[in-house]
Amino acid sequence: MKRIISLLICIALMLASVSSVVPVRADTKPLYQVGVIGILPDDYIGAFALHTANTYESDYKSDLSFPMQGMTSTPDGNLVVLDTSYGRVHVLDKNLYNILTFGKLGYGEGKLQYPVDVAVDKDGNFYIADFFNNYFAKFDKNGKWIFNVGTEGSGNGQFNGPSGIAVDSSGNVYVSDQLNGRIQVFDTNGNFKAVLQTDVVAPGGMCVDSLNNLYVVDMRSSVVYKLDSTGKTLLKFGSAGTNDEQFVYPFDISVDKQGNIYVLDRGLGSKKHACVQKFDSTGKFLMKFGDNATKIPQPNGTFLTPGGFAVDDNGNVFVIDSGYFYNPGNPFGYPVGIRLTQFDSKGNFVRKVDFNESTKGRLINPWAACEDSKGNIWVTSWTNFNDVGEVDIFTPDGKFIKAIKGISDKEPFKAIGGIASDHNGSIYVGLGDYVAKFDENFNFVTKIGVGKVSNVFGVAVDSSQNIWVASNGTQTVVGFKSDGTLLSQFSPAHAPVGLYVDKNGNFYITTTDDNKVYVYDSSQKLKGSFGGGGRSTGKFWVPYGVVVDNSGNIIVADTENGRLQAFKGDTFDLLWSTEREFYEPAMLSLTKDGKILVADCFHNVVRILSETAPQVSQFDFAVRSSVSDVKVKAGDTLNFNVAIENIGKTDDSYSVKVENNLPSTWTFTVNTNTVSVKSNDMILIPISVGVPMTAGSEEGGTVTLTFTSTGLPNLSKSVTISIFTPEVPPVKVSFVGDKVPLGSTGTIDLSVEKADDLYGLAITISYDSAKLKVSKVEPVFNLGSNAVFLENHDKAGTIIVGYSLEGKVSGVTATGSLIRITFTGVSEGDSNIVPTDVTFYNSKLGVIKTEANPSTITVYNPVPPTLTVDFADGITVKDSSFYITGKTDPGCAVTINNSKITVGSDGRFAYSIILREGANTITIVSTNKYGISNKITRTVYLKTSTVIVLQIGSTTFTVNDTPGALDSPPVIKNSRTLVPIRAIIEAIGGSISWDGTTKKVTIVLGDKTIELWIGKPQAKVNGVTKWIDDTNHKVMPEIINGRTMLPLRFVTENLGAKVDWDGATKTITITYPAP
Q1: Quick one: which of 192, 321, 773, 1002 has the most CB atoms within 10 Å?
Q2: What is the per-residue pLDDT for 742?
Q3: What is the secondary structure of 1008-1070 as a DSSP string?
Q4: In 3-state terms, what secondary structure has residue 748?
Q5: pTM value?
Q6: Where are the beta strands (DSSP E) in 372-439?
Q7: Which residues, listed in sequence order, are joined to residue 658 by a DSSP beta bridge?
Q8: Where do you find CATH 2.60.40.10 in the chain?
Q9: Where are the NHL repeats (predicted)?
Q10: Residue 725 phi/psi, 5° resolution?
């Protein structure tokens, strides 16, 4: 009956020339979504995951399309944010409280799959561009669905990835048809009007200004276009890059009432560029909001991958961060760090609202699901990019029960995969290298398949309670008995992914290598295969899950094509395909009554599908609140809505009973006792809660509304809302400064870490008057121009301070030093300073908690400690090892050239340092326990040159005045001195070797190598050939009296020494290194 009515409505609307219903293609079959597991409350804004699979293929170039999570504002100043995880729209008030949520996950009337952009017309109607559903949807200002427009295709009124939407003041609706590379125009009733002729290649986010000019982002070229209503380009600016006025991965756009243009760059590139840029009306860059986050959680004012934004009438910028995305060109992502951030018009961070991915019941990238014998749903999820998984369990109606994160605390799940139930009390979870068996009470039982499986993707249980595993890592299908005993294994044509075993023992295996399904009989012989890569029906892109329904039909999850397809069990002929309404289905399983569980890894839910239409009761309804567990600041008013939807066949009315457990000082308003709702309709019940300024930290309670059907009096449903003020952490009060000099003054500050909305404070401070005397007490922090500061320290040992604003004014944020006390040290020693009776008054919350701790103040003698050392300034030494001794006052700490050294109980110390050649500065510092220091700085000179003295005809020589003997005396030949060189080389630290075959002498010193040959006037220095004497080629190495004699000057000067000759005494002096 419902479908007949829908058909009549469709005909009537078409006769009225309104494209308000999405037609169903002849080759498709609807599957009825009868439940969804994992959707969080209405005030949770979710974002999708793109981890297990994405959608980019050679015939579907969706690389620019993730994430898109559009935002806008309404005529009354509320904020609109799209929810890409749960297919819904959130409306938030100026305090960022969720006042309305509408839309449902799916395809068809009132349903959204990947809502990417939103616009609001002058009457408050919402227009949503849905990328995957290939339509745009219109809802009224209360979230009631009006119509959908569009189907997949390239004809007029058809779409291929609509990515942006805008509505002008005349009601014209502009839609970015991204993958078709065009912009289509419709009237306010959804009738097609035109395709604009533009230069835009890949249109994305859109908006209009007050003159109905259209602004659109070209996501491919990173150019922003301003167009008139005909598509003519009036202005364009921007290019690809990471500088100002450039974009890496742009999507969203907005124009304020002054004509300034704002562009969102999601920043997904090899170099991140996540920000919102502001331009004037001519496209001149003005400023940017936000920056790249460098860690998770992201610091305030930074982004991981922003998906959308909006600008209000005051120039405030609101940005939704959609999570962490990576791999530009073929993007993947994960909804961690979902955050709504507000900036003021100057780009300053104002506030944030986080949507925690760790919220109980939040599924992240679910891979598989199964039903146990109690009807509970078990779901495996890859919760982050580190392959850390968990199993989440829900009741049949979707209430979260428990999360299992491992087989024990010491062994968490990793690389989690498929899951299956034997419907007899056991659950089997596929992991990296085994299958974990649990009972239905969530207890781990045993490991199965250790050493026999790897990367378990699919798990199935046959009619004999045997477990079969798609071991992708070993490219085998392996079977076990329920106790873990190995049955058999076989190797399918390709690495298995999904796996199902029917009642006859036939195996159905999906493979992603070739995008096919393979069928094997019970003896594991191949019966056939079907599929192959492609986007047309009967083809697959990355098929994951597979099941066989009660009619023997094979149902396949065509994951990256976003659909399910069915094939005949005997011939493998295509029976039907759904629309592309299930992005992205991973593993499939069947419930006991034949429903299909689809793990939707894109939307982070499990969908429950039926091949038959669900029965609609005569009387039934659903109730939900736009907020669930909300924190409200003191002084704020929380406005929200409770939606009641009549999902029965008959119009009905409902009595409303309110149980108010809020504090008596709070106000609560709901203006109805009975509501009437037509069948298939919904109404909103506005509720207001006022929180007084005097509300304390974590004050609040709950409100429960119970609705009872008039048509079926025993049918009641309730919704409970928890409302509390946020916890206000205690203000930490401390003293800064811990020393006062004896006989002189020092300051101690009373400081706070941070006190928001501080209106005033009162504090009493006690101290030891035998050691301290108060000289002055004064404010340091300026509380305000009308602030009053009072203090009294007439009584020794006590200080009383009062510091407050006057009148009805807001408090200020105070950090750091508030009050300064000047003390005079009276007697040496330690004294406690203790804060008592500390009262801080918050202008919104009243008296707030404080955490004040005593401190110790030391009165010290300011005279520096004595310090002496045993060496004079400017001395010259020859030994590089320099030993220092000295003395200071006992108990002092001593450093020498910043190195801390040991000081004896009598104050004596000793230390050795290594000197460098030349001047060395030595600084000795002695510091007593009060931090008073004495310092001595002196210079010590080191001279360590080697001086060698020889005499012609003498075998005696000296090294630094130390005598030695040569094995042969120096001689003069050809007017040049020849010496037995070994003793000289070794004296300056070098080495010498002899090659008797070639008669070559090799000398090495540091980085210098000299090679000389007996009887040759040339030598090599570091491989370069040189004359031994440029003016006398007769000079060469010789063997005289059986001794090898080398030219002295050539050798020593090439090694870096200086040679001096005294002709009168025939004395040679060698200095190394040369001065």
Answers
A1: 321
A2: 93
A3: EEEEEETT-SEEEETTEEEES-TT-TT---EEETTEEEEEHHHHHHHTT-EEEEETTTTEEEE
A4: strand
A5: 0.75
A6: 377-382, 389-394, 400-404, 406-408, 411-412, 419-421, 426-430, 435-439
A7: 705
A8: 867-942
A9: 102-142, 146-189, 234-282, 527-570
A10: -75, 150
Rounded CA-CA distance 520/506 in Å is 6
Residue range(s) in the chain whose domain bears CATH number 2.60.40.2310: 621-724
Which structure tokens are listed for 961? 């005045």
**Contacts made by residues 503-508, CB under 8 angstroms, sequence distance 24+:** 503/463, 505/462, 505/463, 506/548, 507/468, 507/477, 508/546, 508/547, 508/548, 508/554
pLDDT at 569: 96
User: Which class is domain 867-942?
Assistant: mainly beta
DSSP category for residue 888: E
Note the CATH number of domain 43-55+65-354: 2.120.10.30
**Contact (CB, 8 A) for 259 and 213:** no
pLDDT for position 9: 32
Backbone angles phi, psi at 796, to 5 degrees: -60, 135
- Collect all residues with Cβ–Cβ distance below 8 Å to 173 and sequence separation of at least 6: 119, 127, 136, 165, 166, 167, 185, 186, 187, 188, 190
Tokens of residue 866, six digits: 């004595």
The residue type at 608: I
**Are the C-beta atoms of residues 315 and 288 closer than 8 Å to each other?**
no
Longest distance between any two alpha carbons in the chain, whole Å: 135
CA distances from 98 to 353, 631, 911 (A): 11, 11, 71
Distance CA 97, CA 143 (A): 17
Whose tokens are 């040959």? That residue is 1013
CA distance 1011 to 1004: 9
* 620: Cα separation from own chain's centroid: 43
As given in the structure block, the two tokens for residue 794 are 């007439």
Residue type present at position 346: K
Q: What is the CATH number of domain 945-1073?
A: 3.30.457.10
Q: Name the class of domain 621-724.
A: mainly beta
pLDDT at site 501: 98
CA-nearest of 741, 760, 739 to 749 is 739
947 Cβ contact list (under 8 Å, min separation 6)? 958, 959, 960, 961, 1069, 1070, 1071
**Residues near 11 by beta carbon (within 8 Å), at least 6 away in sequence:** none
Nearest to 420 by CA among 456, 474, 384, 383: 456
Question: Cα–Cα distance between 364 and 49 in angstroms, integer?
Answer: 7
Where does the chain hold its CATH 2.120.10.30 domain(s)?
43-55+65-354, 366-610
Which class is domain 366-610? mainly beta
Q: Which of 459, 452, 559 is nearest to 509 (CA)?
A: 459
pLDDT at 25: 47
Those residues with Cβ within 8 angstroms of residue 372's Cβ, 6 or more apart along the chain or in another chain? 378, 421, 423, 425, 427, 440
Rounded Cα distance, 203 and 218, in Å: 5
Rounded mean pLDDT for each run of 10 residues along the chain, 1075 residues in total: 34 34 55 96 96 82 94 95 98 96 96 98 97 98 97 97 97 98 98 97 97 97 97 97 94 96 94 95 97 93 97 96 89 92 96 93 95 97 71 96 94 91 95 95 97 96 97 96 95 96 97 97 97 96 97 97 96 95 96 97 97 94 96 92 96 96 96 93 96 87 97 97 90 92 94 91 95 96 92 95 92 94 94 92 82 92 94 88 95 95 96 89 93 94 86 91 90 90 87 92 92 94 93 91 88 90 90 81
CA distances to 351, 377, 691, 815, 837 from 845, in Å: 19, 44, 10, 18, 19
Taking the C-alpha atoms of residue 686 and residue 100, their distance in angstroms, rounded to an integer, is 10
Rounded Cα distance between 999 and 836, Å, is 94
